[in-house]
Amino acid sequence: MRRLLPVVALLTMSACGFGAPPGASEQGQKISGLYRLMFWIAIVVGVVVLGLIAYSIVRFRRRNEDLPRQTRYHLPLEVTYTVIPVVIVLFIFGVTYHVEHQVDHVSADPEVRVDATAFQWQWRFTYPQYGITIIGTPTSYPTFEVPVGQTVQIDLRAQDVIHAFYVPEFLFKRDAIPGHLNVFDFTVPEPGRFAGECAEFCGLNHAFMGFWVKAVPRSEFDAWVQQQQVSGSPSPSPGAGTTSGPPSGVTPTPIASQTG
Fold it and tell me: What gap in Å lies between CA 162 and CA 138, rounded to an integer?
């Protein structure tokens, strides 16, 4: 029974993704797959190393006071244990580069463009092609909607200090730096509502700097766009595309002093 415990542990870790969430965006799924691959490589290397150690302990344990046979200058063995780690590292480098290239790829013709501007201490999301702007406050977090299965391109800016666009379920974070434009894409394959936040300490009300990403079918997204255009954005109120309350579910208490 004890011999089966390691096998059961490995299968359990594999089923739960070794602690890595599956990724709610297509880019996040690629990152999650890379994490799992790294974990399996580490398991194989660990099993081989521990197996060789256990074999050496048992096979070459002291039986008498005689010095065991010594092996020196075994060139094939030295080449083998040098080449194998190099090949593993090169393979990991190649796979990582490939995944990063896919995640960082920016489409020349995305279906939706969103200008995301971080400021102390909230977010402004503007859809230039639709003339819509969603603005949040520390007590009313903005929700910006995106169509399912289509490429959404974010033009990320910071108005004052360094902030960060971070959606944990996307497995993705990108800094917003004053005077510097960061552009990235994401595609959400399934409908859902995902919490986002600033992941760089940016001042007094940093903890209240949250937002929501809501992925909906294209028809529902088009209806939402029409509603926003009729209601006249921008508006920080929940009825105009924002959602009250922080993503964590904790109701924030506004702080009177808003100095930087």
Answer: 18
- Residue spans of alpha helices (H) in 16-136: 26-59, 75-104
The yes-or-no verdict on residue 14 having pLDDT over 70 is no
- Which residues partner with 126 through β-bridges? 115, 133
Nearest to 181 by CA among 150, 159, 151: 159
Q: Which has the higher per-residue pLDDT, 237 or 120?
A: 120
Separation CA 111–CA 185 (nearest Å):
10
Do residues 163 and 196 lie in contact, with contact meaning Cβ atoms separated by under 8 Å? no
The bridge status of strand 140-147 relative to strand 242-244 is antiparallel
In Å, the largest CA–CA distance within the chain is 92
pLDDT tens-digit profile of 150-200? 999 999 999 999 999 999 999 999 999 999 999 999 999 999 999 999 999
pLDDT at 96: 95
Q: What is the pTM of this model?
A: 0.73
What do you get for the CA distance between the two ends of the chain, in Å? 61
Q: Give the side-chain half-sphere CA count within 13 A for 72.
A: 2
Mean pLDDT of the chain: 83
| 164, 201 contact by CB (below 8 A) | no
Does a cis peptide bond (omega within 30 degrees of 0) precede residue 121? Answer: yes
Q: How many residues does the chain have?
A: 260
Average pLDDT over residues 39-47: 91
The DSSP bridge partners found for residue 135 are: 124
